[in-house]
Amino acid sequence: MADKEDKVPKNVNGPFYVDTNCIQCGNCIEVAPENFKEGDEFYYVSKQPKNDEEFKNCKQALEECPVDAIGHDGE
Ligand code: SF4
């Protein structure tokens, strides 16, 4: 489970975030290209989901992240 105390600083505020366990596999931007971006060290949430499709994609990205670096309990 991702740790909201260990968020990547570039995440936008909101429920979804990436933490520093990210290994830059790139799956999240394949699954939810509207909401995740590649950073220098870690991927991050660039935009919170704004509709059902984006929400579904973000949840899928969370479930598929190989190191559980995506959380959904942020502020
Ligand atoms: S799926 Fe997880 S490990 Fe892969 S880039 Fe996204 S946050 Fe990082």
Report on this structure.
The chain is an alpha+beta fold. The protein has a domain at 1-50. 24% of the residues lie in helices and 13% in strands. It has helices spanning 27-31, 52-64; strands at residues 17-18, 36-38, 43-45, 70-71. The strands form two sheets. It has a two-stranded antiparallel ribbon with strand order 1-4. Strands 2-3 form a two-stranded antiparallel ribbon. A hairpin with a 4-residue loop joins strand 2 and strand 3. It is globular. Bound molecules: iron/sulfur cluster (SF4). Iron/sulfur cluster binds at residues 18, 22-28, 43, 65-67, 69-70.
By DSSP, the count of extended strands is: 4
Outline: globular
Q: What kind of sheet is the major sheet?
A: 2 strands, antiparallel
SS class = alpha+beta
Bound molecules: iron/sulfur cluster
C-alpha Rg (nearest Å):
10 Å
Sequence of strands across the biggest β-sheet: 1-4
Considering DSSP H and I runs of 4 or more, what fraction of the residues is helical?
10-25%
Unreliably modeled segments? none
Give the averaged pLDDT, no decimals. Answer: 97
Report, as a whole number of angstroms, the end-to-end distance. 16 Å
User: Roughly what fraction of the amino acids lie in strands?
Assistant: 5-15%
Q: What is the string of helix and strand elements?
A: EHEEHE
How many distinct helices?
A: 2
Set down the secondary structure blueprint.
Layout: E1 17-18, H1 27-31, E2 36-38, E3 43-45, H2 52-64, E4 70-71
Antiparallel strand pairs: 1-4, 2-3
Bound molecules: iron/sulfur cluster.
Iron/sulfur cluster (SF4) is lined by residues 18, 22-28, 43, 65-67, 69-70.
